[in-house]
Amino acid sequence: MGANANPTNLIVPAMRGLYDKLACAAYPIVRVTAGLFLVPHGAQKLFGMFGGGGLGGTAGFFAKIGLEPALPLAALVGFVEFFGGICIAIGLLTRPFAAAAAIMLLVGAYKVHLAKGFFMTNGGYEYALMWALLMVAVFIKGGAHASLDRKIGREF
Questions:
Q1: Which of 59, 103, 128, 141 could form a disulfide with 70 if both were Cys (CB 3.0 to 4.6 A apart)?
Q2: Domain boundaries, the chain
């Protein structure tokens, strides 16, 4: 029996050993992936990489949708996505950056996507909301065992 005191009756009991061995990797995979997937979006906003508009283009878009002051907000969002994404991935200052990312994604879901309905295929809010809720979960859990926060012994 694995670490679980009240194990689930598995359909394929032979898989229990594998599941028990890999369970400790599940959350770090989620946290690292979520953090790294934010980074290129920040690179678009800050540096104009990957077809992004850079700070000027992002600020112009923000002004167009009523997010002011547009330039400082563009820089802040780019910072949270780029540097915050890196920090979430390595588990450093995990909770503050996850909270900032969740807020940013909720604002985006509301300001950019809400009027387009639910489905992402129509530009709707489903994807931004899913990412926001993922960041809420990372905020709640923190860096956990495979993080720099834990390694240095300090978490928010």
A1: 59
A2: 29-145
